[in-house]
Amino acid sequence: MPRIVDARMELGDVTVHNLKQLKKLNAVILPVAYSDKFYTDVLELGNLAKLAYYNDVVVGGVCCRIDHEGDKRKLYIMTLGCLAAYRRHGVGTMLFNHVMKIAKEDGNIDCIFLHVQVSNDEAITFYKKFGFEIVGKKENYYKRIDPPDAFILQKEMKTSNGSEESEQNTSK
Amino acid sequence: MAANSQKLPQKESGIFKKVVRSYECKQYKNGLKFAKQILSNPKHSDHGETLAMKGLILNCIGKKDDAYDCVRRGLKNDLTSHVCWHVYGLLQRSDKKYDEAIKAYRNALKHDKENVQILRDLSLLQVQMRDMDGFCDTRYQLLKVRPAQRSSWVGYALAYHMNNDFEMALKVMGEYRKTQAPPQKLPDYEFSEMILYEVQLLMESGAYKDALKFLEDFRHYVSDMLAYAEIKGDILLRDKRFEEAELIFHDLIHRNPENLMYYQKLEECLNITSDENRMELYRVLKEEFPRSHVCRKVPLGFLKGPAFRDMIDQYLRPPLHKGVPSLWIGLKALYENKEKAQVIEELVLLYEKNLQSCNKFHPEDPDPMEPPSAILWVWFFLAQHFDRCGDHRRALEYIDKSIDHTPTHIELYMLKSKIYKHAGDLEEAALWMDEARSMDTADRFVNCKCVKYLLRVNKIDRAIETAGLFTREGMPPLQTMDDMQCMWFQKELARAYWRSGQYGEALVKYHEIDKHFDDIIEDQFDFHTYCMRKMTLRPYVGVLRLEDRIRGHRFYFDSAHDIIELYLYLYDNPDAKRAKDAPIAEEIEQDLSHLSESERRKIKRKQRKALAKAKEKAAEQEKEKEKENKPRHDDDRKAATDENKIKFNPKELLNVEDPLNEANKFLKPLQSMCTGNIRTHLLAYAIHSRRRKYLLMLQSLKRAFSCDPENPTLHCYIVDYVLTLEKERPELPDPVHTVIDDCIPRLTDGGKSPDELNQSFIAKHSNSLEHLVAAAQVLYKLHPDYRTKAIAMVTNLSDSLIDRSLRTCRNVHKFLSSGFLGDCSDELASYSSQCHALFPFASSFKPPVEAGKELESSPASPGDAPPCVGVAGRSPAAQKES
Ligand SMILES: CC(C)(COP(=O)(O)OP(=O)(O)OC[C@H]1O[C@@H](n2cnc3c(N)ncnc32)[C@H](O)[C@@H]1OP(=O)(O)O)[C@@H](O)C(=O)NCCC(=O)NCCS
């Protein structure tokens, strides 16, 4: 799909002042509702939470956290999404590149992973494009939506030969 | 008292000098100590000048009563001392008794003609009080005493200027300039201002040619090149030297391509009369200034037909592509023209269709695809368009579509709120504005809007709390809003109090607004000395002239208008004062009635606690403030004004002896500064008719008549006047008869009877609801048996009415409910349901079931009384600007 040449796209911080915009965003993008606690915690995430602006309007957002599993550090994408009307214009890519950048700058992240509803082809295609692989399936991961199962999508950061993959840009 | 008993011996006179010095250095404690050294000696205990100085110092540390006592005693003991008089004047001045202060200074000067300090102080007060003759004299004295100072000359010239004696002003300036060598080093800002001031004097005197010559002679020294070019352009234009003027305005457009005035003057230079020529001009200009917004916008105003369509098509697409939320607002003025509104509608609906089918504004466009936000802006535009056209249903459809599309954009929610407001559902409007506010709590603008909308539905506490999110921490929001002279807020709050029946509180807010205007006038003091010293004379003259008319400002007019109506209401309904003395307690009572006894007690206890806490906090804050104020004596005027700060008391204001007298105080400035506004004179009539001042009533009618002879309220008043006279005539003295007989024919179309007047009024305005309401009142008053006809007249909702709007229909509804025409409940029910069909969102017309959330308007909300008998006007709510 052709990109709009002169569109302005940028990232912005989530603050106590605009938190409601993130809530509104997630309410329409994501199939599950998040608790108030989730949003108060978001304010503590710093760089791990961002809003995406398209021509000065908030249209997307991302929230991640860092999980520790034994001696491994994993970057978990809790939410990443873009308003339906603004999809396929590179917003998702911009958000994902931001996540990638954090992981790389950190230098000590083993992998990036997330959960996706098994029926969400759009997201699966999107993440595969960035080198994610389906590494597992969690039955009945979701409580109130159908189908309730989720894939675990994962992208290794430290490859066996030690070299890291480079940032991707899907714009053609 | 012999003068020599007032002469101090050498030692004491040395101490006296120390007193003066201590005062000047603000070492008040020391000053008092030294003064005591002199006064404690029985020989000098009544030394006048020492007493005066002691008083002056006491005044500075806030001991006003002692201060006056000392100063008066001092003056009594030494009536020939300029010091005593000067000090007496300073004291009066700090109490803002300027006239008294002027007198005291004059007395002081009798005993010391050439005292520069006193002359200066006097001149300041004179210009402040606009005693321009006195000012001129004093400036002359100052010039004589201090001829070497520039400010002496400039002040003297300015005094003549303010007296409109341009010739003398110019002479003085000229004399002074001759003594000055032109500056060597450029730019010399002050010299430049002096030159431009002389040019201004020449222009105001009408000597344009001389002004131009002078300007050119001194061009070299002028550093404000913008002013130079603008002045020169104006003079050339006035002199019909079009070609030269054209060059100048063209240059000015280069400097600032967004200044509309330059374009208009350029058109004048080119003597453009036809739209073709004008179009050609803007075509050329647009090429030269491709980024100029004005170039693109001006043609939209005069173009018609297909040319307009082409132009607006080009105009709309870039901002819809980019996303410019203010796009529609900028085009609002075009809606005066129905055809243009129609063209815009067709065009933007076409964009919508095309975007949906091929993602372009026009399928044949060579441009690449539009971004996904384009359709959003198109819908946003259409929502505003239909809102303006009164089609609120479609407006809401479009705004809902855009919110579905992009639920994160705040402007959309603000617009939704606005549409509800226009459609007459203020509750819903407040909800949506609060939603918008919650999406960006750092946005002061949307916060203000939200506060305003909350006040419109009388949610006073919520509004104050919301405003408090942006006011200074640790201070009550209302205090900060007052300190910041936030007048829109105070006006809206006053109206909310009024609608809630808290008349005293409303009066306080209106008085606070009035006080801001006093303060603004007072603030001039900061400029008198400064501007003359710094040579910023042109702006200074501007400030003086602005201040002369400051109460002509819309903010003053609106609040004065309201408070006059409120006083009239209080005069007409003396019981209103008592009825709502403690409205809050009552409300609590009502709210709790549905709860169980124990619950009620619990809540009450909580409320009492909260109240006590709030009181405590307020008291603490009060103390804090006092502390803050006390040590600050660096500026005695400031300290004095802080102390004088009037705290208005709702009870006192409500219980004034004579509300009409209060109303009259607020009317006075309107009568001198808002003479062109018919409402001034209608208010005047309303006041005077209650006082039975027949000649003043007549004067108000005459003035109103010259503003707009067809005004509906005026029609009622004229009939009212004629009817009143019929009754009262025998009581009036002969000379009054003569005056009345002289004027009445002009007001009554050559002496027509009320009946005849009303008939021709109806015939002339049969398609205006506002006029019909007035006529129906008159009709019913003259013929109570024509009630049915009167009701039919006002409940007319035919399409042919030119003003069948929510506002006018709501006024009809209020009128019917007022009982003026007797009990109209049946008519009201059917009228409401007809109006509900026309204005489906308006809460005033919602059927009873739905109207649960309807705004309750207090029995006191103004405008319920018919304008004719009670001569009350419209409610503030009814004429709020939307
Ligand atoms: C997944 C999502 C974030 C993608 O956002 P986006 O802004 O459309 O992504 P981009 O425009 O950057 O797309 C990048 C690439 O991903 C691929 N892609 C994305 N959506 C696709 C789709 N529906 N079909 C096929 N490929 C797709 C494409 O290759 C695309 O590149 P292209 O447009 O140049 O062909 C978005 O669809 C979304 O918000 N979905 C709902 C939320 C969600 O499910 N999130 C995942 C769980 S956290």
What's the oligomerization state? Answer: heterodimer
* Name given to the CATH homologous superfamily of chain A: Gcn5-related N-acetyltransferase (GNAT)
The CATH architecture category of chain A equals 3-Layer(aba) Sandwich
Q: Biggest β-sheet of chain B, characterized?
A: none
Give the radius of gyration of chain B.
Answer: 33 Å
Count of discrete alpha- or pi-helical segments spanning 4 or more residues of chain A: 4
| Overall number of domains of chain A | 1
How many strands in all of chain A?
Answer: 7
Low-confidence stretches of chain A: 160-167
Level-1 CATH class name of chain A: Alpha Beta
What's the rounded overall pLDDT mean of chain B?
Answer: 88
Distance between the termini of chain A: 9 Å
Basic shape of chain A: globular
Placed side by side, the strands forming the largest sheet of chain A appear as: 1-2-3-4-5-7-6
Task: Output the radius of gyration of chain A.
Answer: 16 Å
Strand content of chain B: under 5%
Termini gap of chain B: 70 Å
Into which percent range does the helicity of residues of chain B fall?
A: over 70%
**CATH fold type of chain A:** Aminopeptidase
Strand content of chain A: 25-35%
Query: What pattern of helices and strands is seen along the backbone of chain A?
Result: EHHEEEHEHEE
Structure in a nutshell:
Chain A has 172 residues and is an alpha+beta fold. Chain A is 25% helix and 32% strand. Chain A has helices at residues 19-29, 36-42, 91-106, 121-129; strands spanning 9-13, 49-54, 57-69, 72-82, 111-117, 133-138, 150-156.
